[in-house]
Every structure is written in structure tokens, then in C-alpha cells.
Amino acid sequence: MLERTACSTSAPAAGDHHALTFDHQSLPRIILSAATSSSSHGGAAVTVSALHAAATKLGVLPSSLPVSNALISAYSLSGLLPSSLRAFSLIPYPSTASYTCILSALSRHGRALEAMSLFASSAVSPDVELLSCLVSCCRRASSFLPARAAHAFGVKNVPMLAFYASAGPALVALYAKHGKVVAAKRVFGFSDGEDVVSWNAMIGGFATAGRGGEAWDCFRDMRSHGVRGNARTAVAVLGACDLESGRQVHGYIMRIHSGGSKPILWNALLSMYSRAGHVRDAEKVFLEIEGKDVVSWNVMIGAFAKNGHGERALEFQDMMVHFGMKPDSLTFTTVLMACCHCGLVDEGLAIFQRFVAGIGLTPSMEQCACIVDLLARAGRFEEAVEFTGQMPERPNAIVWGALLSASRMHDNVEFAQIAFEQLVQAEPENPGNFVTMSNIYANAGMVEDAKRVRMMIDREDLVKPSGQSCIEAV
Which keywords appear in this protein's UniProt record, sorted alphabetically (predicted)? Predict the structure, then answer.
């Protein structure tokens, strides 16, 4: 057995060598510390890999479960999920803790469904930590039934208070998101009334479910209980605020978090003012952000786009590049939407060409749909159809739906028929396409064709979307 062994590893910085003395007990802590203390993923990965090699050379692996588990987590934290998976696969008999580590790693890297599948194929009996991790995966994957099964197992097989303290917030968020408000409130009732994570889950769950009033009431209840919110609290409640309540949260943020808050808070404020149509307030908030990230720029550009300020959106996209921020795919989509909403056809085409040919981004279906919509709204239908033929992938319903909508706007039966034929193949069960095509025929005086399409709705037993009235307050 290894009592105490000296091992030299190279730190990330060139020329910086340290002799690390470790044993079985200290090695897991050293590995995890290496993953979390480095300023970059690259530096952390180098150190973790060196420790892994040293542990293998000294015979610590694969027999030591704590070291193996630490490696799974450390590789994941360093951005190396494949190495985490390999470390897990080399464990002869993975423990419950091993499964907790690998499920957390998969979930952290956006592979929650794969984590749930891995757990389903295991033979381990989950403890509180593994159940909590599993419920968190279910929340990220929005998988209601597996979460409910984990909930039932936890209540029956592990200490109830410990289970709710660990898994409660994720359960609350998932239940609320799926409209199971009674279940969410019941789980919330078992939580620590002073635990801000549980309050955040309840507020965020209501907001995600579109129950803004209840999210706001929950936020006020939290404050009346003397619980101090954090940045996530403000972000959660801002997603459900109207302008009046949003201004109150803005004041709350300034009092509690001050001007040095994280960009995520300011980005949420930007989104709230944008939804309310108050672009000037959004711009004031944007200018106050000290460390603007790409999300800040995207939200501000989106605020201009949604509220009819297309040219300002383009100006800010240029400013974004000028200040050294690299536009991403969402920036691309948002700017194209601004061009669509404001009829900036040539500008939109130029931007599309610049992003695809200049930056090398592969356009998404949504971005291609923007170009089709842009051209068709301008009455340039031949170019729109020609563009669909040049797309790198086969156009989907989003693209053809944009052409059908523009054809209705211009009462263009010829290109409406082209789009409709493609939509019937792409999504034959969507009654909205049939209704739109029927209306186009009717507006063109083609009564028999309109009746024929309406009969297709009845023959296919499709449910026509219900009409809605909207009264705009001035």
C-alpha cells in the first residue's frame, strides 16, 4: 500500500514546477483543486492529466474509487467530457458515488438524456446524492415521468427531509414548469423556508410555466419572510414581470446588488424592458453594464429588432465587433430578424453573406427562413424560391411557412401553392397551413380551390385553430 509518495507534476505555466506530496486520502482533493483553481480549461486539463498519469504509474488506479470519482468530476470541470467518460469506464465496479459523478458530468455538458439512460442501465441503489443528481437531469431534460418516479423512490427509500433538502428545488422547478402547481407547492412545503435556492426554484418554475402573477406573489412572499434573494432570484422573477413590477425589481437589484452585479442580472433587465417595449430604458441599462458579454449585446440588438428599430440594431452589431466582441449564431439570427421586421432587404442579404462567407458560420434553418421571409416580404418571390434551392440542407417547415405567410401578404397564389405543397409533405397534420392556403384562394376569388382545401381539413380530421380576438390598450 502506498503510505506517502512524492510525485512531481508540471503546472500549466511554463517553467513552474512543483513537487506534490500526496497519499490516498489527499489525492482526490488535489485533483479536484487542480480542476477548479486554474484560470482556464486548458491549464486545468494539463494538470489533471498529469495527476492522472502519476496516480496510474504509482498503482493508485484503477483500484481507488475516490481517486477515480475525483478524476471523473475534474475532467468534466476542465471541459474534457470524453476523458470523464473514459475514467468512468475504467472503474471495475462503479459505486453509487461514481454514478453521481458521471451523471453530473453528462448533465453539465448538456447531455442530460444520456445521463438518465446510463442510470437506467445501472444496477446501483441510489442514495440521496444520486437521486438529487437524477432529478436535476430530469429537470434539464424536461422529463416529467422519470422525475416523478425518482420522487416516489426517494420518499420511500431515503430520509425524507434529506431528500427534499437535496432534490427539492429541482422537483419544484420541474413540476411548476409542467403545470403541476399543487405538487410543486407540496414539495416546496418540505423545504427550508430560509433556503433561497428553493424560493428561486418556485419563482422560476412559475415564470417558465407562464404563471407570472404567481411568480410575482412568490417573490413578495420570499421578501416578507426575510429571505435575501440573490442574482438568480432577480433573473427568475424578471422573466415574469410586466413593466410596473419590473421597475420594482430593478430598484431591488440596485439596492441589494448595486452596480457591480453580474451581467446575467442586467441581461434579464434588458429582456424585461424589451418585452415591455421600452427600448430607451433597455439602452440605459445596457450602458450601465460594466462587463458586457455577448448575451448583453444580443439582447440589446434584439430589443431594437423587436421594437422596429432595425437600423439601430445594425449599428449595435457593428459596435459589437468594434469593441472586440465576437458575434455568435444568435447575433446573426437577431440581426436578420431586425432586417425582416424593418424591410432592410439589401442590408440583410449583405449580412447573411458576411456571416456565412466571411465568418464561416453555417446558417441554421431559422436564419435561412429569415432570408426567405425577407425576400418574399419585399415581393422578390423568384429570388426566395431560388434561395431555398441553394440551401445546404433541405428546407423544412419553418422556411416554407415563411414563404406561405409572405405569399398571403402579397396575395400571390403561384408561390403560395409552391410553399403549400412542401408544407403538406413536411407537416401534414398542421391545420394552420390548410387554413392559410384556403384563405389565399378565397381572397383571389378561387372559391372552388378554397373549398377543396377546406375539405382536406375535414378529410384528414384536422382541428382548425380557434380564432382569438386581441384588444390593444392605447
Answer: Repeat, Transit peptide
